[in-house]
Design goal:
Shape of chain A: elongated
Order of helices and strands of chain B: HHEEEEHHHEHEEHEEHHHEE
Oligomer: heterodimer
Strand content of chain B: 15-25%
Mean pLDDT of chain B: 84
CATH superfamily of the largest domain in chain A: Response regulator
CATH architecture of the largest domain in chain A: 3-Layer(aba) Sandwich
Mean pLDDT of chain A: 86
Order of helices and strands of chain A: EHEHEHEHEHEEEEHEHHEE
CATH class of the largest domain in chain A: Alpha Beta
Distance between the termini of chain A: 13 Å
Number of domains of chain A: 2
Helix content of chain A: 40-55%
Structural class of chain B: alpha+beta
CATH class of the largest domain in chain B: Alpha Beta
Low-confidence stretches of chain A: none
Radius of gyration of chain B: 57 Å
Radius of gyration of chain A: 19 Å
Strand order of the largest sheet of chain A: 2-1-3-4-5
Chain lengths: 218, 454
């Protein structure tokens, strides 16, 4: 999984982002001002930087201008003015997200940027199951299991958002691409199939009144 | 406007000139006619007298005391041929009797064969009353010269009219030029170029005064527009900042709540998440309270009472004691003033706010905060000074702006809303006092509240 540098001066938000990203398997380092970005970059490499704009010492625009490496950057900011968005994108950021944002949305955008820079996770292992995300194949005890394309999209969504409960609507929206309420029982049927094929009865948990969660030990 | 002025003044000028010229010409012609009349009259008298004398001589030489008509007519013919050379035609008429004779001389103008004459007729002096002398004086040449003068006058009048029109036009252009400049400038200002001014040159007159007034007006407009723009910008800034200020805690509240709902949490994680939610909610509450306070203060008229300053300082000392002791910061109070007219709660909140600011500035140990009251030039000054980190020069002007933070990272801790100094400034305004902030980095800050009225 990716190594992500979170630059955000507001401690609660920084912590929240860190918690969420670590949940799905990323490694995060939190810094609280613009100058710390460079000292942290000297110590280790990162696959992505989440950058706030209003920062002490050096603001986000200054930071991105002084970045020498081509690490992808996503701006995270409360400044939603169009001119700021344009400036952010012009300066070479890969995406721009305005607060308050949805954590799932942040994860999806991170995933998109990582896929583009080929830093995305290719394989997922859990006990006897191996999922090859690149070749879209699923193995159980080293044997290939037949998955319909829709089932694969569903298991991919669950893996990318592991440890987070996803509502049936959200799953329909992400895995099926419906952005209106479809028949939520479709989701139940597909979940049932996946559970049976991989004996994941305990791994995919039903969350009361909410939906499903793929649980991976943290 | 210019055209109107041109036509009005031009026609007035031409009218007056016309009246003058025609009056002069009428007067001249009348005068000339009178002169001609008088001259003819004199000549007639001379002719009539000399004719009478010659007739008398002829009578003396005659044999029978009577005039023979043949002699009279030869005499008259001689006269007529002589005067004919002088353009005078005369004739003598024998009236045969002395009765019913009109003794007066009659004068009149006649035209014959396109020539003008003065015709005079009258009887000869006694004893020749029975003879009527009639004379035609030819005036054609005199009248022609008069006509010539009249024509000359007319030509002069027309030429003058043209010259006057051109001159008037040029003069008006010169006179109206400043007005045109003013018109151009005001059009520019109306179009939004508020920095437009009129260049005033030459001597002072009414128009340069207008231009000066115009410039003053333009300056005032520019100033007002700038002020309005600044105000609008300030308001926009406030809204932007406020949105940021409210979004940040909302993001965490929403995010943590979502996290709690969707993720299986251990107990310590649960406590951490809920703590963040509560902290952020508290922060928003503080923000709402401060905003409400600011809003109420805007049109607030305080009920002032006499406040004992030593009492107030002791009060503040009590409130702050615990916090200050914890952070090992010394508070020193000193006052030369016993009483001040103000409202207790507001004044206390103002000083407390300033003290807390000073406290934050002194976060790195050895802090001394002085709370003072003194009298300078009949004005009471309350001051709060510290030996803390100070405020950078470029930020000094902005510290009273809402949500302005010298160091964004540090200020958000400890529940600061970013409205503290704005509130202080607003409270000072309520008391008609002035808030003056003096600061030097790494040396300290002094905030003075100068009360203008005692």
């Amino acid at each position: 999984m990716a190594r992500i540098l979170v630059v955000e001066d507001d401690k609660p938000i920084n912590n929240l982002i860190k918690m969420n990203l670590e949940l799905v398997g990323h490694t995060c380092v939190a810094v609280f001002d613009g100058e710390a970005v460079f000292s942290e970059l000297e110590k280790q490499n990162f696959d992505l930087i989440l950058l706030d704009i209003m920062l002490p010492k050096l603001d986000g625009f200054q930071v991105i201008q002084q970045l020498s490496s081509d690490i992808p950057v996503i701006f995270l900011t409360a400044r939603g003015v169009v001119s700021d968005r344009i400036k952010g994108l012009q300066l070479g950021s890969d995406d721009y997200l305005v607060k308050p944002f949805d954590m799932l949305e942040l994860q999806m955008r991170i995933e998109t940027v990582l896929r583009r820079t080929q830093k995305s996770e290719n394989q997922f292992f859990l006990d006897d199951v191996k999922v090859d995300l690149a070749s879209r194949q699923v193995f159980y005890k080293d044997e290939r299991v037949d998955f319909t394309p829709q089932e694969f999209l569903l298991i991919e969504t669950l893996i990318k958002n592991r440890n987070i409960a996803l509502s049936r609507h959200k799953l329909l929206e992400i895995a099926w691409g419906y952005d209106f309420g479809g028949d939520t029982r479709t989701v139940d049927v597909h979940i049932h199939n996946i559970r049976k094929k991989l004996s994941w009865e305990k791994v995919i948990k039903t969350v009361y009144k909410l939906g499903y969660r793929l649980e991976v030990t943290r | 406007m210019r055209l109107k002025t041109f036509f009005t003044s031009y026609f007035l000028l031409i009218f007056i000139l016309f009246i003058t010229v025609s009056t002069i010409s009428v007067y001249m012609i009348n005068n000339q006619m009178d002169m001609l009349n008088a001259r003819s009259g004199r000549e007639y008298q001379t002719i009539s007298a000399s004719l009478a004398r010659d007739l008398a001589a002829t009578l003396d030489r005659s044999h029978n005391d009577t005039l023979e008509s043949i002699m009279v007519s030869s005499l008259v013919n001689a006269y007529a041929s002589f005067y004919n050379e002088h353009f005078i035609e005369i004739s003598l008429i024998d009236l045969q009797s002395n009765d019913d004779v009109n003794p007066y001389i009659e004068t009149s103008f006649t035209v014959q064969e396109e020539r003008n004459f003065v015709f005079i007729s009258g009887v000869l002096p006694t004893p020749f009353q029975n003879y009527r002398l009639e004379a035609f004086f030819d005036m054609t040449d005199d009248l022609a010269s008069m006509k010539q003068i009249k024509q000359m006058l007319l030509i002069l009048f027309i030429m003058f009219s043209i010259v006057a029109a051109v001159a008037l036009h040029l003069i008006l252009i010169k006179i109206f030029k400043p007005l045109e400049i003013v018109a151009v400038a005001s059009k520019k200002i109306a179009g939004g170029e508020y920095s437009e001014r009129i260049l005033i040159k030459g001597e002072k007159n009414e128009l340069s005064a207008v231009a000066e007034d115009f410039n003053t007006m333009a300056e005032e407009i520019e100033k007002q527009i700038k002020r309005l723009r600044k105000e609008v910008e300030g308001k926009q800034q406030f809204v932007d900042n406020f949105a940021h200020e409210i979004r940040t805690p909302l993001t965490s509240v929403n995010g943590y709540a979502e996290y709690m709902q969707k993720v299986y949490l251990k107990e310590d994680e649960l406590i951490e998440a809920t703590q963040y939610i509560m902290d952020e909610a508290k922060h928003m509450k503080n923000l709402a309270n401060s905003l409400l306070e600011l809003a109420t203060l805007r049109n607030f008229i305080p009920q002032k009472v006499m406040i004992s300053i030593p009492q107030l300082f002791e009060d503040i000392g009590q409130t702050l004691k615990k916090t200050f002791d914890e952070q090992k910061i010394k508070l020193m109070c000193h006052t030369d003033v016993d009483f001040l007219e103000a409202q207790q709660d507001l004044l206390k909140s103002l000083l407390l706010n300033l003290c807390f600011n000073a406290l934050k500035a002194c976060s790195h140990g050895e802090g001394v905060i002085k709370l003072e009251a003194k009298k300078e030039k009949e004005k009471i000054i309350l001051s709060v000074s510290d030996n803390g980190c100070g405020i950078p020069k470029e930020s000094l002007e902005k510290v009273t702006e809402p949500f302005f933070r010298v160091d964004k990272a540090r200020s958000r801790e400890g529940g600061s809303t970013g409205l503290g100094l704005t509130l202080c400034g607003q409270i000072a305004q309520v008391f008609d006092a002035q808030m003056i902030i003096e600061s030097e980095e790494e040396v300290g800050t002094e905030v003075k509240i100068v009360f203008t009225a005692l």
